[in-house]
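cron nightly-structures :: item 1 of 1
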Amino acid sequence: MDIPEVAFVVLVRLPLKSIARFRSVCKEWKDLIDSDFFRDHFISRNSSSSISWSIIQMQPHKLTLEIVGHHGCKTWGLARSPGSFMSFFVEKAIKKLLVLACTDGLVLLYAEATDETPMYYVGNPFFQVWFRVPLPPFLSLGDLQRLRLHERFRDTGFVTKMQSGIVVSYKVVLVMTHGGTNVGFAIYSSDTGTWETRHVTCPLHHCWFSHRKSIALNGMLHWFSSLNSSFMAYDFYGGNVDDECRIISFPDSGKHDVLRRFSRTFTTSEGSIVYFNAYGENENRTLRVWRLVKYTDSPEDAWQLLWEVSLVSMNDWLGIDYFPVVMHPLNSEIIYLWCMDKKGMVLFNLRTLALSLHKENEDDSKCMDSCVLSFNRCSEYMENICGYFFASFNGCGPNQLLFSQYVLPRWLHRLPRPPPT
């Protein structure tokens, strides 16, 4: 073997944390690591390996961003959780800093300077690379004032475009106007470095609740609105044929609605939107998990039932005071449940029916995907939001997103830069 071959054989077996360091050794190694051949070989070699990820709480005024972290995986080789890399430096003093969205390893931040100047930043926390997104030039002074006083920045979305496992583009989305059957977006694209406005229609009359976060997946944003039996979605890269927001009804809307135990939310797993809930009938409790397979208003065509598991045999173990948190982002067999009685996170494998309990006041422990599980004020956050989940308490209140997932990518993609102006 010559030296480049030896370097390839050695480097491709290392975790990404080490590869990122060795990329700076010399130009030859940098060129090798940056090659499509090396990247494709590494991703293929680690396609079934676990990667580091976090459960993110969606009310950033309180506590901390990351409440549960997963580290020590083979792909990245991190000795601490992904949330610990969320350090940030700006060119001027700030009095407010909020994480608005996380997707495909990138993060969207809102910062407010001491002189009340609003600022948006997109960055890669692992590489500590940040780009300040210019404010839309068409914002009036009144818009800027509302941005600060009414916190309209919390209606912000963030989507990416992926090619061969690398982020090649991103878009920052502001919800400018909403109500009735119309929604107005302001969209910043890293491809052009400019803002555009876009007005789209919704097939049903709705009210866009302020401060409702979105979930990004495959260039699409997914929101809750006043339509409690459904949610809205819009494709910011592919575009919809009729340029409409899609309205997707939940699979349990209708006759099963009165049987559900928890208020509605959704998450992502294995590249799809996933919805789950528990249902009680004749003293039997069943957990059902669906995957969204088609963006249509017909629940029968939109959803595929993945799991239907009886919880009767687990009542003694789980008790009755628990609620669902998220699905594992890379394994749709594993669901995360918070158990109020035991004050811990329960990992439940829906195929094997295996359960494991992890508590915040215990030492970090390995979980079902072989990552090390760590907590950061998780119990406190769960105590604050637990009342929302139980439908009997929540009544007809709006659906909410209270958790999200920050998942590190499978490769060292850099932050896309807009063209110079």
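cron nightly-structures :: done
The radius of gyration is 22 Å.
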